[in-house]
Design goal:
Cap15, alpha+beta, 3 helices, transmembrane helix, eight-stranded antiparallel barrel, CD-NTase-associated protein 15 domain-containing protein, elongated
Length: 217
């Protein structure tokens, strides 16, 4: 994950209320600690401890809020989509239609979203063909709410190509819409890309949520 911290995905009104409550609570706690220290003749020189405590609390929230879904829904204005997804990508390359199996691993905190994608072919027995496997990593990401109420995951990515260089490095952009059908949580949409040989292609992706665990391929 990127190291920067921000409040981009917080519900603004609830964020303000949370800051006020945390500040009041931290000030009360610090006063009690000061009184306790004075009782034992310890000197304490105050240097904005409430601010430091707030920074620590929000650091913990950023790293761990995804583990408490109901608090995420309360404080964050975008859905929790962190986890592993599997499905298919269908593409059109130089007029030839094809498809590959794919896996999306989505890292998400209150500040950031990061997407790793894996693509591969399988033989007639369902075994992965290692030479066809490629991986892409997102570089710029966003999760936005559309006017129709649906959420879209947008990310610019770079694909590293295959290990034997038969599949070249390429850059591209994905637009995936979050849809829920009963118990199924699905990301589907389109992409386009351009490789290092200045040749481009596009297609569609559809992946279903599998697990909250971030399972690498």
């Amino acid at each position: 994950m990127k190291s920067d911290f921000n409040f981009k995905y917080y519900n603004e009104s609830k964020l303000i209320l949370l800051v006020i409550l945390l500040y009041i609570g931290s000030e009360a706690l610090i006063r009690e600690i000061i009184n306790l220290l004075k009782a034992y003749n310890f000197e304490y020189y105050r240097f904005y401890p409430a601010t430091a405590l707030l920074a620590l609390v929000f650091w913990l929230i950023n790293k761990h809020l995804h583990k408490v879904p109901f608090l995420w829904q309360l404080l964050i204005k975008v859905p929790l989509i962190r986890g592993t997804y599997k499905g298919m990508v269908k593409y059109n390359y130089q007029g030839v239609l094809g498809h590959k199996h794919c896996k999306l691993i989505i890292y998400q905190t209150t500040s950031d979203i990061k997407v790793n994608c894996y693509f591969w072919d399988e033989d007639e027995n369902g075994n992965k063909i290692s030479s066809t496997q490629t991986k892409s990593e997102s570089i710029v990401e966003d999760l936005i709410r559309k006017d129709n109420g649906l959420y879209q995951l947008l990310f610019y990515y770079q694909n590293k190509g295959s290990s034997d260089s038969s599949i070249p490095i390429k850059d591209g952009f994905n637009t995936l819409t979050l849809k829920k059908e009963g118990e199924i949580k699905r990301l589907e949409g389109g992409y386009f890309s351009k490789n290092s040989l200045s040749k481009g292609n596009g297609g569609t992706i559809s992946v279903d949520f599998q697990t909250k665990e971030l399972k690498h391929i």
